[in-house]
Amino acid sequence: MSNLLTLIQENRDAILNEWLQAIREVSSRRGLIDDRELETQTSEVLAAIYIVPTETPLNNLDTSAWRPLKDLLANLSASRAIQGFTPSETAMFVLSLRAPLFALIRKHWGNKADQLFAEITVAADFIDKLALHTTDSYIHGRDQVIIRQQEEMLELSTPVVTLWDGIVALPLIGTLDSARTQVVMESLLQAIVQTNSRVAIIDITGVPTVDTLVAQHLLKTITAARLMGADCILSGIRPQIAQTIVHLGINLEEVTTKARLADAFRLALERSGRAVVRVAKNNTVSAVSKEF
Fold first, then answer.
1. Across-strand partners of 161?
2. How far apart are CA 97 and CA 78, in angstroms?
3. Which stretches are annotated as coiled coil (predicted)?
4. Same domain as 185, residue 85
5. 201 and 171, same structural domain?
6. Beta strands in the chain (DSSP E)
7. Is 44:118 a contact under the CB 8 Å cutoff?
8. Domain check: are 15 and 127 in the same one?
9. Most buried among 89, 155, 224, 269, using CB within 10 Å?
10. Which pTM value belongs to this model?
11. Per residue of the chain (292 residues), what is the pLDDT tens digit?
12. How many domains does the structure of the chain reveal?
């Protein structure tokens, strides 16, 4: 059994000072973190090692004794992913611990070649496993940030606008996939319920292409809106999209379509028993809504 863990715990303060110096020498992004926070992080890591029983093997980090240290490194990696550190810079935080450990090993076992080689091997393997765990945690944390940003972008890219009392519009920009269609459908149905709307306009002017899959997603959304009691009008049908729909044989016969959002809004007003007329007042012309 290695004596390295006992040696680390007995020389905690010396290792901390040398570790901080090693980090400052290799770090090129010190502007992302100040010295006080860096010292706090290194102290917490060494404190997590200090509480591990000395009989715990260093070659197996899956034991429960190492769980506090692994959790600490995982949280640290996730925070550095948010701060803008790269995976290599995050791993270097742990890898820079090698230099002070190797120096300590040479100091204690420098006159015993076999013991020196054995302890250096144990230390290198221990640090490498911690660095790999740090990198994996960083990637996981970054993936979580990306997923959260994608969800927020989906919500922001599907705004439902109330155009008039009982009329809502959903302008779509970009491509439609299964995940986004689900968000679109939920946003539209929720708006229909909240505003008690009877007409919903889905505008696809900002959708670059319409293929069979996109058409299926639109039809599902329109069907769901109808089940909620709202008539749907599909606007933004450009000539290229119309030709594509015809060539693909997509059946939109039961869907009311318009080339422009303005035309769809005019039809929605008619279906709700309203009309927009121009009236002259003080030599100016303004538009008002008249209900029939």
1. 169
2. 20
3. none
4. no
5. yes
6. 161-164, 167-173, 199-206, 231-235, 256-258, 274-281, 284-291
7. no
8. yes
9. 269
10. 0.58
11. 458 888 888 899 999 999 998 888 776 555 667 788 888 999 999 999 999 998 888 888 889 999 999 999 999 998 888 888 888 888 999 999 999 999 999 998 888 888 899 989 999 999 999 999 999 999 888 888 888 877 767 666 678 889 999 999 999 887 777 777 778 888 899 999 999 999 999 999 888 888 888 888 888 888 899 999 999 999 998 888 888 888 878 777 788 999 999 999 999 999 888 877 777 766 554 555 555 5
12. 2
The CA distance from 10 to 8, in Å, is 5
- 233 and 258 Cβ atoms separated by less than 8 Å: yes
Residues 6+ apart with CB under 8 A from 30: 24
On whether the CB atoms of residues 8 and 39 are closer than 8 A, the answer is no
Angle, nearest 10°, between helix axes 67-83 and 35-50? 160
Taking a C-beta distance cutoff of 8 angstroms, is the pair 234, 255 a contact?
Answer: yes
**Residue 46 CB neighbours (<10 A):** 19
Q: Residues 63, 56: contact at Cβ < 8 Å?
A: yes
Which of 154, 183, 216 is the last residue before a domain boundary? Answer: 154
Q: Which two three-digit tokens encode residue 162?
A: 């109330």
192: domain range?
Answer: 161-291
The span from the CA of 180 to the CA of 168, in Å, is: 19
* Sequence-separated (6 or more) residues with CB below 8 Å from residue 157: 173, 174, 180
Eight-class DSSP state of 259: S
Q: Residue 5: CA atoms inside 13 Å, Cβ hemisphere, count? A: 19
